[in-house]
Amino acid sequence: MSSRDTTPSLYHRTGTQGSFHQHLALPTRTKRGQSFNRDYLHKKLWKFFRLVRYAVRVCLIVRKYAIESSHNNREQLYNNSEILFDLSNFRRPVEETIGRNIRKLLKSDPATRTDDDIRMIVVGLGQTVSSFTEFPLQRQYALARVAILEEFERGRVILREGHRAEKFYLIVDGITNVYKLRENPATHVFNSRLVAVLKKGSSFGVRTFILL
Prior knowledge:
The longest helix is centred in the first third of the chain and has 49 residues, at about 30-80. The protein is of the alpha+beta class. The chain has helices at about 30-80, 100-105, 115-130, 135-145, and strands spanning about 10-15, 20-25, 170, 175-185, 190-200, 205. A two-stranded antiparallel sheet has the order 1-2. InterPro entries: cNMP-bd_dom, cNMP-bd_dom_sf, RmlC-like_jellyroll. It holds the Pfam family cNMP_binding. This is Cyclic nucleotide-binding domain-containing protein.
């Protein structure tokens, strides 16, 4: 027995040896069911499009924020000179003059200096005199073993022209003027002319001393 007007369909079968009932639930394509499916799909699609629209709006907001943030960072980078990448900003700052302890060690007898004293001298000169770090590390330690700090007052002559130099000088503080002497052929009077100004880090004297 079956009926097309009802939603479920009942199939009944009777046999000679027995009987059984089998229930089958089959969907029917009624106008009401089709309308329900269309409304259901319409609501689902509407929710989906709303979610897509919200997602696109969020992406646009995030993109706008990222662009504005990047633009502001670039302006801050160009306006703030301290943020600009400069290799000198990442180096250890060079002190203006050597410390009191380093001065004391450099004035001490080289024969009494310990390995720690020599290491401190190398570090101190490296932080104060940039040209000292241009020497190989082994040579830096060799100079630190024998170097002696000498201080000269203003106007003191360190080395005269024509005299043989007996030392290698490395300026660790102050400046040194270099004058050239010229003799007047008529009067045989010598006049001095400034030819160079040596600043901290400059060296003069016996160059062979740096080959220690």
